Amino acid sequence: MGKVLVVGAGGVATVAVIKMAAMPEVFTEIMVASRTKSKCDAIAERIGGNRIQTARVDADNVNEMISLISSFRPDLVVNLALPYQDLHIMEACLKTGVAYLDTANYEPPEEARYEYSWQWAYHERFREASLTAILGCGFDPGVTGVFTAHAAKHHFSEIHYLDIVDCNAGDHGKPFATNFNPEINIREVTQKGKYWENGKWIYTEPHEIHKPLTYPGIGPRESYLIYHEELESLVKNFPTIRRARFWMTFGQEYLTHLRVIQNIGMARIDPVMYNGVEIIPIQFLKAVLPNPGELGENYKGWTSIGCRIRGLDKQGKERTYYIWNNCSHEEAYRETGTQAVSYTTGVPAATGAMMYMKELWKKPGVWNVEQFDPDPFLEELALLGLPWHEKFDIDLEL
Ligand code: NDP
What we know:
This protein is α/β, with parallel strands linked by helices. 35% of the residues lie in helices and 27% in strands.
């Protein structure tokens, strides 16, 4: 059906490429390109059979990206590198006439600021070039947006309250590790909290608001209100939403380490001089922390991510609704050699890429996932390893 170029070769890319390789009728040719070619080769070797081509590329160098795209000539570029590369890769896609998909919104390296404005600004250029760009197609953002679109399409006439709940009840046996790129993860969880209420953003101190929430098959876990990027697109695309919040579980050990890391300056994103060399503390910290892509081996337990929604049903009656997926770290590791956070991101990225290849998610412009038809995506997502469940008219705890 089409050729795909995957940029990045971390845990998320590993899962996405394994899934794509298993669908030769959809992904006729696959190339993985990243900064460190040996990591691309390791993915290709794992899959075997000369199925995967590899290349080295610095995705921040638009000209390098353009020549790679021009020589491989993919139908779609799937960006599974870091958010810093988003705009450079989008620019290269525009210059070469190729569609684009990613899992995290652009943020400038020098400031941990999460907003879609930079990528939404590309809408007209993609539209005029008749090219599709699909933003935020991991789990959160990604499946959480599709869950919301599914709720709006099938179960609600108006969504009033949306709470996205993200629980990692797994144990990797290490004193401290992050589940995806440490630099991006720590930048995200140490910023101020923020949620949408009655038409405006309300700000909180980091981790100020928290409460125990009960997750299916897991039980109660302390959950902290943090800002997460999909809130911005969801309140725009579903304007009946009165309040939208995002909750994530953290263990006490994790929070204690995080506080110490911040207090001693290791979370700093500005350069400091060390022995005559300029280093960025959080990037040095990444180099000494466990690699999230390799946490899988001893990881036990489950993740549970979903949407809790309150509003009016199709007949105008009050209703509550919970839709979620539980994913096992052990099963993710058995299948792909990575843990459930890489798995729950890589599978939706491969599913979204499949939606594009099948022309089910294809329209000129820059779009968030909830702006496409949720039905074919959710059907394939379950078949590809992330089954989802729903409950109606229950106590949402929120
Ligand atoms: P990793 O750090 O494991 O992998 C990132 C990869 O990108 C590495 O292979 C890295 O190369 C490569 N890379 C970095 N900079 C460049 C560059 N300039 N040019 C080419 N390649 C580059 O991260 P993860 O796999 O854990 O995460 C990947 C993405 O997924 C991130 O953007 C993250 O924010 C997103 N994510 C989204 C989630 C969601 O649910 N939506 C959840 C989790 C993650 P090298 O090996 O040389 O460093």
